[in-house]
Every structure is written in C-alpha cells, then in structure tokens.
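Posting this for the archive.
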Amino acid sequence: MPQVLTDIDLTPRNTLGLAARAAHYAEITEVSDLTALRADTQLAVMPWRLLGGGSNLVLPEVVEGLTLRVALLGRRIVGEDEQAVYVAAGGGENWHDFVQWTLAQGLAGLENLSLIPGTVGAAPIQNIGAYGVEVKDTLFELTAYALADGERRVFRNADCRFAYRDSIFKQGEAGRWLIGEVVFRLPKAVTLHTVYGDIEAELGAAALPRTPQGVAQAVINVRRRKLPDPAVIGNAGSFFKNPIVLAAQRDALLAEHPALVSYPAGEGRCKLAAGWLIEQAGWKGRRLGPVGMYERQALVLVNHGGAVRNDVAALTQAVQAEVQQRFGVALEAEPVWW
C-alpha cells in the first residue's frame, strides 16, 4: 500500500503556485495501489481527487479528502500496421518528454503539442491542443480505472466524446476515472501542420528543417517566447478558451472592430481569439491583487506571488465581465476548479 501523508503542501505541485494543502496525500505508482487504498475503511469513505502535473488546476487553500498523484510510468511501442505505429504511455508520464520520445523513435503526429505542461493521463481529459492539432487527432484508446470500485474500462476515441478543450472526463464522468495508460496511433505518412500561429515564420527565421523534429523545435521556440515558465512565475498556460460564436455575431463584431481575430469553426460558427478580446478590454499586463494577466500574452493568468484561489476567482470574474460588457462575448476558463 502506498504511504499516505497528511497536511501536505501542494503549492509546488500546481503550476499556478497557489497556496494549498492536502489533508491526505498519496502517490499511485501501480494500479494495485487503488485496491490497497480502498481496503482502508477510513480512506475509502473520503472524497478522492486525482492530481497529474497540476498544470490545468485551480486549487482551494485546503483540499479535503485524499489527493492522489498519478505516477504510473512507462513508454513503449505496442503495435504497427500498414498505416500507423501504436505507442503507449503511462498516465503519469510527463507529456512533453513523451512527445520528444516519440520523435526520437522517428514517429510523427504529436510534434505540435511539444512543451505543453502536464501528464499523459491528463492530456485526454482536457483534449489538449495547439497550433492546429489536438490529442483527439491521434488518440486510439485509453485504459482507465474507476476510483469507486476499481473497474477497468477501455475507452476508444469515440467513447471519449472529445470537443474543444473538453471530453467525457470533464463532463459526465468527471472525477470518476484514473487514466492509467493511453495508446496513440501515429501515422506513417507524415503531414506537417505549420499554418497556425507563428510556426511557419519560425521555421524560416530559425532555419529549421521542414520535418517533425523541426516543427517541434519551432513550437518550443514560439512557446518559450510567448508563455512564462511556471518555475519563474506561476501560471496555468492559456487560462480562457477561445469562444465559439455564430458567424453572424462575428460579422457584427468585425464591423465594429475591424482588427478582430477569428478563425472558422465549422457549421456557420467562428472561433474568436480570447487573448485579443482580453487585450482590447485593457487587461494585458494588468494586475488585480497578487494575480494578473501576463504582459506578453493576455490569455495567460499569472501569480505574482502569494495568491490563493479567491484571488484567481476575482480576476477571472473581472476579465469575463469586461469582455462581456465590451464585446457581448462570454469567456470560459479552461482550468479545472477544485
């Protein structure tokens, strides 16, 4: 049975650096650890929370119940057919390290998702995405275990009900499953995605090869320029989702704001750049107490030191209110709130 610790500081275990403590804490290094923990009658009746890399999370000052950090490791090639290679990784694997490992194996498909913080197991929950690529594009299946009774279930891609920064694991099944392993289907036919953001320009400026490895390095370069390092200043990356609106609403906004940044989202809808909206609302580089929106990228909420959940909530609501007032657009925060 894993060691269960009490009153553990979670401040270094969430990238926002929020002051938080776990009433009880344990690390899951084997799937059998869940069975052992459930056998403890005192622990079994507590609420259980799953913690990955803590990169998409807003924590309260005290996390009641049992906090479980997923530390299931392992990376391997598990199969191959004429079109693709199948690779698996444990839910506790560092996401960026896993992406770089696939590239080192000569496999493409995940390069645009380089340098995204977090773990492999958390990636499907959020359906992480960047520069025109999302986890759903290559995820084949995942194996999950029910916290309540240990039920083992395999979710195929369609079972996960992926949407923009969303999945079944954030909706109806939220908090129910520990994702133990994820299998990705990486195509042998390489298709580079370079039209989003500054990737194409970075390939040229840095004289990088038009290969998966070159695209990965371009992504890393751009992200390092635009996004703060959580080790230097607390943050959870992009804090708000890019809102999706009807094309008619986008057209009306565009008539009033010709510089509005938007992208097609299919079915008569458009995706607006939340960072642009926030900057135009005057929040880029602006602080509210110990938190603020990052001076280089208005989409990123940062902790200047000593912040707690209520500080983040106050800034979130203030930004949402001003964007709503100015543009009539509702912003939704990306992170999970405990």
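The radius of gyration is 20 Å. The first strand starts at residue 5 and ends at 9.
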